Amino acid sequence: METSHKQNQTGTDMVQALAELAGILRNLRVPAPLLRGIMEQINRLGRDTFNLAVLGQYKRGKTTLVNALLGQEVLPSAVVPLTSIITVLGYGEVPAGRAIYIDGREEEIDLGNLSPYITEAGNPGNEKQIKQVEIMVPSPLLQQGIQLIDTPGIGSVYQNNSDTTHEFLSQVDAGIFILSVEPPISQEECRFLQTIRQHVRKMFFVFNKMDLADEAERKQSIEFSRTIIERETGFEVETVYLLSAKQALMGTIHQDERLITASRFPEFQQALATFVRTERQRTLLDAAAFRAKQAVREAVLKVDLENSVLDMPVKEVTSQLAALQEHFVAIQREKLDLAYLLKGELERFNDRLLMEMKDFESATTQTTRQQLQKFWQERNNRELKQLLPETRQVLSRLILQQFDQVRQSQEQKVEAWLAATISRFEQKNNALLQQIKELAASLFAVPCQTIASHTTLSPKSSLYFLPQIPNTLLFSLGDWKYRFLPRSLAGKIFLNSCLDEIHELVSMNCGRLRYDLSSRAADSIRTFKRELDNCLEEAMQDVLATIQAGMEIKNQGEERILERRRELAGLRTRLTGLEPQF
């Protein structure tokens, strides 16, 4: 509890410090993007709530999942498309509800009689013109500042339901996208996810109704849906939560721990709790602090530079400004050279990675074949109905173990390469910034601070390894095809089939690993290059704009110059006092 209080206090302090910084930036007439960035941070941190929306196609069990998260049956659910209105659930010690109409009217409603307001049957086509329904209930999840949003299902026969959900997306901070094992992901869901991707970055993917399919069907459905989502929508499905919301809800209502455990719902609850407790708050605060420090240093530069311009004769300022602009043209050319060199570094990295993965593929194929043959020889006297599935399990385990190890070692290598590359190019970039600093110092006697890049290997990985060849028609027959053959012949054919699969499995997983590392490295390099470009461009434009601002003050006379000097001195004192708070 103390940790949570400390985090809340830190967030409040950050908002106050950012608000003071924003006032200073307005006074200094900083470029609009700089001030807008600080205001965006204030808005994000100042919000009292975090919108976590449950999204997906109708009949996937969204409302049941919401009820399971609340641990009580608050919202009505049914097998037909039911929810037609955005329903916002927030924390309240006493259960209560209200309907908010499009014209601004509000109406208190009975939680036991929600259907006339939020269902298609009770409010067809939203004929009552309700904007949304808000419900307050006691809940540990909601008490942490979360607003849980139940949305109408997309893809139903009621087009207005889909429209309502699409219109709400801009207000969503994070989402829970509901799929189910049967049927698999639809084209409509893919299109919806593509739209969501434009508004929401954090997404939990839940496969509901797991109790309606066996293990093989679950795996096949998840594999298919994961592939489609990543290929078609741009989302990276890092973790899939397979569960039964209905079992979880029934288990909670009837206090049946066996049913709750069988639902696998606690794993998902734990992931949500971790996100709410740590990741969300930390991410917001880190982003705000980094942006604020950058803004403070840029603001100090503007103060010092404007002071120097105020002290300098107009003719000298004009001459030095012309020299500065000429120098900036040369810096732009050098910036293009850096981009070309950085592209070459990435190409050489990919070539090295390809060669290393080829060597690993060859060695791993041979090692895995030897280990599998040894396993078979040691157990060849067992019955085939036991030996065949055990052999498949061993093969899957061998594949996953070796690729988990190589993934870790390769990530470490990529991190090392990325750190070295970024360090080298940061030095080149800082040399260009130093040219700006030295010229500004010589012309206007102003120091200029730089901020080191924080680029690392992108953590966003969609990588998962295949422990077996995806099902073909023959493979889907399982081991039945061996039961009609003599024991020795069946065993020989099966073993040879597994040995043949090893090369394909290793090759596929090597390709997946190489693509994952290459893509993440490229993302990191693009981020770094963008930071370099922005850093140089902002530094040049800021210097020019500040000089022009000083010239405008000089043209207003000596009294205005003295007044502005006093203003700048006060602003500098406030800025240096603010920086430690970030």
Automatic annotation (TrEMBL):
InterPro entries: Dynamin_N, P-loop_NTPase, TRAFAC_Dynamin-like_GTPase. Pfam families: Dynamin_N (PF00350). Residues 52-209 form the Dynamin N-terminal domain. This is Dynamin N-terminal domain-containing protein. It comes from Lucifera butyrica.
